[in-house]
Amino acid sequence: NAGVTQTPKFRILKIGQSMTLQCTQDMNHNYMYWYRQDPGMGLKLIYYSVGAGITDKGEVPNGYNVSRSTTEDFPLRLELAAPSQTSVYFCAGGGLYNEQFFGPGTRLTVL
Amino acid sequence: TQLLEQSPQFLSIQEGENLTVYCNSSSVFSSLQWYRQEPGEGPVLLVTVVTGGEVKKLKRLTFQFGDARKDSSLHITAAQPGDTGLYLCAGKGTSQGNLIFGKGTKLSVKP
């Protein structure tokens, strides 16, 4: 099993551009999460999903959107990139006790 | 809002030394997890503790959940350079469904 995979690994965007961060899991997790990690700030939850077709906002959802059409895929969409969205983004699958299985991350820079 | 405070923020020690890092809150958590994150990678789950007073051992790592389920500690015996990384604690609240992450302790073990 590959676990949780994320693409791309790195990306540079200009202000106002849009992009989709891809996340795929083969662990059959119902729960999936998107976090952003900024230096010294820990992990902040952006959006989460409890199953296909169901998504909900986390702590910092503004400027982002998600969809969950299948159990395997949970893409994160940035519509109008802003410098404040420069961060490292992690997707995770959730286990029975909310344990998180993280992907390798996408490092995004908005200039 | 539930918060998890981790201390110390940074720790630099020599190989062979022992160390303890802490994760504290004023709130009660139904379970608590510890993760280790290496540079450029996603966090990896080390352990989940669910019972007040619980102690779990993972080779040279000992994890303890406080009796009141408000705090936890991670003790490393005879630290090795391979222990270097960011240690994150994460708690699941008694009423909310998502994890709350601390900001982490950055450990450096020098040979």
Short description:
Chain A has 111 residues and is mostly beta strands.
Overview of this protein structure:
The complex is a heterodimer of chains A (111) and B (111). Chain A has 111 residues and is mainly β. Chain A has one domain (4-110): Immunoglobulins (Immunoglobulin-like). Chain A is 0% helix and 51% strand. Chain A has no helices and eleven strands. Chain A has strands spanning 4-7, 10-13, 19-25, 31-37, 43-51, 54-57, 64-66, 76-78, 87-94, 100-102, 106-110. In chain A, the strands form two sheets. In chain A, strands 2, 4, 5, 6, 9, 10 and 11 form a seven-stranded mixed sheet that branches. A four-stranded antiparallel sheet of chain A has the order 1-3-8-7, with no helix packed on it. In chain A, strand 9 (87-94) and strand 10 (100-102) form a beta hairpin. The radius of gyration of chain A is 13 Å and the shape is globular. Chain A starts with a strand and ends with a strand. The model of chain B has no long low-confidence stretch (mean pLDDT 93). Chain B has 111 residues and is mainly beta. Chain B contains no helices and eleven strands. Chain B has one domain (5-110): Immunoglobulin-like, CATH 2.60.40. In chain B, strands 2, 4, 5, 9, 10 and 11 form a six-stranded mixed sheet that branches. In chain B, strands 1-3-8-7-6 form a five-stranded antiparallel sheet, with no helix packed on it. Helix content of chain B is 0%, strand content 56%. Chain B starts with a strand and ends with a strand.
